[in-house]
């Protein structure tokens, strides 16, 4: 998968010859965010810059995509680092990557007819040209609005599904703890765990978020990490210990969970967002010894590895969405030009629900 | 298992009434090491003290064991800490615990006839009385000396077997790295991995040990961590990355392994001996993020959990021992009185092979 993405990525970022576009063009130029400067810690104004380029004419096999929505995800920051991660580091000067939903504006590729919806790991652009490699048609489910379908089904939903059910393997009656619980993935993890008969405790960063988790989403308890010590609060809210700990944050919250794990517990490492803005080595969990003492399995995953199973997971997720069993909030920021600042919200907890950028209007 | 051991342990350490022994007594008194002072870091002279107690008369169901050998294992230090570990902390004033092999000197328990061999988690004693709970007969295998059979089959062998084959799950052609490779467990892990067609790299603490690993045991490479940077050396000796990392030490060696793991690799946490002598919180691995980036599974285990499968593992191990496929060294210290100082060798790397104490002579 690493190689697939990297190969695709290289072809996507290849030098674009300054060809003139044909008569059918929908726009003479496109706007793209370029990766300008590798961030030392937080993303700054000059980390990404917005530029306008002419749209080249389509060659045989290519399509022009008009972006409708872009998903902003914590892992975007990982791609900017020069760590050895699950992808080659994003080269400076290339277009910033993100998961996108678009409409085919023009096509010389029969797999993607004009007017159809397409999704994949794309670039931060209002229009872009691709040969279609790495993209798939987006099957809009009946009875779910397009923004909701893309926001939940493109990354967050499959991530919650795989991480909790295939890696965490909760049994009815288990206690499941999830951090960044009001985030896009966390909120789904908690609800799916409830659907499987677990006691669910969420950790989030405000009273409002905590209230939302318990009052709207049915979490058994929610802990505001800004207000109280997470370890103390978990001792109270997980009195029988933790069987599955679903980690999105890392640092002290992970340590608190490790401290209270039951024998044979599963620790799912989905994200370590508290460490992504650091260029210095970050110590691992201080309670690491509990991997022995409590016979734990700590397993990390990257959702891209599971792409071929998305249809199967999403069928389940759509059913739960339609029947009101999965609730969620979308935090939609309008306009490609606001994408960089919007991304920053993920690292301050400033977003309120699944973070997305609306770039183009859906066709009627 | 935790509860079984703890319950057994409590009964073993109950107050012993000062009864006089009957006529059949083989010795009027026994020597025991008592846990005297919880160590802050290293084990000191007053951590354990040797005392003599009268041997009580046997009640119905009890047996008197004359200890022949005691196994010294890194996990002994864990039992002395007041951390939340896999066992209740050893109470001050109780007899020190260890895996022992003994001969039944007297018996009022038909499951353990006089003269038979018995093994289990016992106390650091030359003679001790037990009701037999937690003990099993020791089936001395044909063609293997008693010291070798006890030294390899009581703890180290099953640990290597379970950790490597059931948790590490190596495939032929995989690169397996093992730390404390010249230790009792590590040396077996490497050889079992070779028997399964892997490339094996060991990390050890002297030139002599490294030479033993490559020249005698058939390791593909050995790294002397006192002489060179382990990460640099692993880059050279594991040029295709690491598929299974078997950790006995923790700290920098674990970090070096994590850095070079291949996608989907398994990290077996058998021991973290570099951290056991610390009373302060110890940071976890700095490359912990690789659990995501490389989609790792990090799993810890405690060999006591697998006790019911020992017969099955040991049948395999004995076959390999008899046919010369498993080589090992025993480091036997003579005399119960030297047990405390001998234990210290494990934390300085001063032992040379499986560390044991010879307490009593085998009957002819």
Automatic annotation (TrEMBL), chains A, B:
Domain Enoyl reductase (ER) intervals: 44-357
Q: Which residues cross the membrane?
A: none
Show the Pfam families listed in the entry.
ADH_N_2, ADH_zinc_N
What keyword terms does UniProt attach to this protein?
Oxidoreductase
Molecular-function GO terms, alphabetical: oxidoreductase activity, acting on the CH-CH group of donors, NAD or NADP as acceptor
The organism's superkingdom is given as: Bacteria
Q: Which InterPro entries match?
A: ADH-like_C, ADH_N_2, ER, GroES-like_sf, MDR_fam, NAD(P)-bd_dom_sf
| Alphabetical list of PANTHER family matching this protein | PROSTAGLANDIN REDUCTASE (PTHR43205), PROSTAGLANDIN REDUCTASE 1 (PTHR43205:SF7)
* Protein name as annotated: Alcohol dehydrogenase zinc-binding domain protein
Species the sequence originates in: Parvibaculum lavamentivorans (strain DS-1 / DSM 13023 / NCIMB 13966)
């Amino acid at each position: 998968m690493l190689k697939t993405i990297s190969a695709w990525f290289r072809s996507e970022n290849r030098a674009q010859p300054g060809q003139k576009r044909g008569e059918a063009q929908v726009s003479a130029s496109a706007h793209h965010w370029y990766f300008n400067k590798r961030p030392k810690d937080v993303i700054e104004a000059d980390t990404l810059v917005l530029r306008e380029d002419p749209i080249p004419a389509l060659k045989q096999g290519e399509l022009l995509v008009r972006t409708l929505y872009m998903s902003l995800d914590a892992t975007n920051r990982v791609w900017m680092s020069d760590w050895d991660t699950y992808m080659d580091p994003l080269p400076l000067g290339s277009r910033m990557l993100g998961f996108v939903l678009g409409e085919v504006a023009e096509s010389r590729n029969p797999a993607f007819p004009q007017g159809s919806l397409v999704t994949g790991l794309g670039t931060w652009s209002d229009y872009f040209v691709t040969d279609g490699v790495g993209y798939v048609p987006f099957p809009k489910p009946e009875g779910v609005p397009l923004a909701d379908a893309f926001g939940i089904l493109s990354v967050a939903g499959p991530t919650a599904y795989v991480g909790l059910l295939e890696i965490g393997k909760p049994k009815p009656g288990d206690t499941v703890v999830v951090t960044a619980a009001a985030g896009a993935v966390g909120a789904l993890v908690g609800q799916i765990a409830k659907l499987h008969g677990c006691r669910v405790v969420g950790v989030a960063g405000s009273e409002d978020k905590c209230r939302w988790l318990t009052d709207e989403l049915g979490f058994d308890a929610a802990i505001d990490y800004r207000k109280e010590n997470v370890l103390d609060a978990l001792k109270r809210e997980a009195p029988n210990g933790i069987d599955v700990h679903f980690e999105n944050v890392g640092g002290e919250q992970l340590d608190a969970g490790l401290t209270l794990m039951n024998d044979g517990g599963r620790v799912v490492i989905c994200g370590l967002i508290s460490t992504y803005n650091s260029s210095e080595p970050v110590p691992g969990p201080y309670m690491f010894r509990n991997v022995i003492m409590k016979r734990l399995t700590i397993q990390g995953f990257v959702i891209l590895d599971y792409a071929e199973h998305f249809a199967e997971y999403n069928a389940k997720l759509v059913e739960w969405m339609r029947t009101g069993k999965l609730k969620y909030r979308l935090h939609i920021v309008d306009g490609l030009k606001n994408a960089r600042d919007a991304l920053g919200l993920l690292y301050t907890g400033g977003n309120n629900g699944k973070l997305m950028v609306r770039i183009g209007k859906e066709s009627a």
